[in-house]
Amino acid sequence: MPVFVDTNVLVYARDASDMGKQAIAAAWMEHLWTSAGGRLSVQVLQEYYVTVTRKLDPGLSAEQAREDVRDLAAWRPLRIDQPIVEAAWRMEDRYGLSFWDSLIVAGAQAAGCEALLTEDLQHGLDIDGLRVAGPFQTVVGSLS
Question: SS3 string of the chain?
């Protein structure tokens, strides 16, 4: 089963300020690479690049972050198009999510995922068949 990965999981895997979370996020990433189960969107890659180059302390160099983004292109990032935006608006209206979280949910659904690995939404929440899994509350490898 493919698992949609939100930006925060990618960032934690590179953030040395919390070694515990970094280790778990890195284990998730290793599992998703090995199982070929990771999915994400161009939105996630954009957010990742900005966060690791401008908000982490210490952050990654632009070249390191670009290499990560190039590597993650192997996951065939979902492009955000008008139908996904429309679906996000429906999520926003129906569930009261922020637009950005709604866009992640709509992207995960469009990518055919049954699970969304994120720290930004309530662990265990079911959104129209998409199960939200907190990366630090879920056993690594149990979703795919």
Answer: CCEEECHHHHHHHHCCCCHHHHHHHHHHHHHHHHHCCEECEHHHHHHHHHHHHHCCCCCCCHHHHHHHHHHHHHHCCECCCHHHHHHHHHHHHHHCCCHHHHHHHHHHHHCCCCEEECCCCCCCCEECCEEEECCCCCCCCCCC
